[in-house]
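pasting for ref
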Amino acid sequence: EPFFPGHFPGRPIMPGVLIVEAMAQTAGVLAFKSMPGEEPRKPVYFLGIDHVRFRKPVTPGDQLRLEVEITKHLQAIWGFKGKALVDGKLVAEAELLAMMGEEK
């Protein structure tokens, strides 16, 4: 991927912000898939992230596996716990918060 050579030169790793973004995108898909089929699809707005921890670097050739679970769902607010794994080992984790918005 094009982001590897510049982060860091001589020791390429996947930027942590991209790992967190991947978790957030996965959480959005999980929220959509968890809604009853008759509900209209609404935009998902990212509200916040807490307790982010990066345990090991992700390097070129690694396969990043994302696991996200719903921790709360109160009306439009959704909470998630996300994990990123490489070869079954935890490389990053975070708690995410999102809100289902209204279509305009």
